[in-house]
Amino acid sequence: ALPVVAVVGRPNVGKSTFVNRIAEADEAIVHEMRGVTRDRSYHEADWNGVHFTLVDTGGIEMGTDDAFQGSIRAQAFAATREADVIVFLVDGKTGINADDEEVARILRKSDKPIMLAVNKMDTPNKVDEMWEFYQLGLGDPWPVSAMHGNGTGDLLDELVEEL
Ligand code: GDP
Ligand code: MG
User: Fold this and answer.
1) Ligand 1 pocket mutation, candidates 12, 90, 126, criterion most atoms within 8 A of CB
2) Which among 2, 28, 160, 4 is positioned nearest to 82, based on CA atoms?
3) Is 151 annotated as a binding residue?
4) Is residue 101 a contact partner of residue 136, using CB atoms and an 8 Å limit?
5) Burial category of 146 from C-beta neighbours within 10 Å (exposed 0-12, middle 13-18, buried 19 and up)
6) Which ligand is nearest to the CA of 11?
7) Could you tell me if the ipTM is greater than 0.85?
8) What is the mean pLDDT of residues 32-38?
9) Cα 12 to Cα 30: distance, rounded to the nearest angstrom
10) What does the alpha-carbon distance between residue 47 and residue 119 come to, in Å, rounded to a whole number?
């Protein structure tokens, strides 16, 4: 089986945009396991000849706040079980919130390699805006723009080293 890279983070940080930029095909891989495709979609990806499965998480659209936050937590736990590398996406425009901190708490307990990607950094030279993301305790933040592609190549170069 191919190595698995899971993209986690709260809604609207740009997970699907990020996955669609990196995945090879438009179509998600249909997973045989019942219930799995409902909240996660699997995509084939390749970077410099390294093939992997990219998992877009957090497709559940919810009712109550509790269930909503529970799903973010559940996705983070699932990623720590299933993935070989986890990309934790946060929103560089809005900054960190309580949901990000909750996901970070879960991910810090995992022994899987975690890459912290700060999305929506659409203009270059934003290194000076990265300081706040160190407080998540997940090492160096990687500024990216899933929409425009800035920084994604650097992140992938580092990511495939972990596979
Ligand atoms: P998800 O809920 O985490 O899957 O987030 P989506 O991929 O659906 O994106 C949420 C919103 O953020 C959409 O309106 C995207 O167009 C926008 N978005 C995603 N990536 C970027 C980015 O790099 N820059 C900007 N400015 N907007 C982005
Ligand atoms: Mg999405």
Assistant:
1) 12
2) 4
3) no
4) yes
5) buried
6) 1
7) yes
8) 46
9) 23
10) 19
Residue-averaged pLDDT of the chain: 85
pLDDT at res. 155: 98
Amino acid letter, residue 110: S
Angle subtended at Cα 72 by Cα 95 and Cα 42, rounded to the nearest 5 degrees: 105
Q: What would the two tokens of residue 53 be?
A: 């499965």
15 is in an annotated binding site: yes
**Global pTM?**
0.90
C-beta of residue 162 within 8 angstroms of C-beta of residue 84: yes
Nearest ligand to the CA atom of 145:
1
Domains, the chain, with CATH or none: 4-161 (3.40.50.300)
- Determine the distance separating the centroid of ligand 2 and the alpha carbon of 23, expressed in angstroms: 14
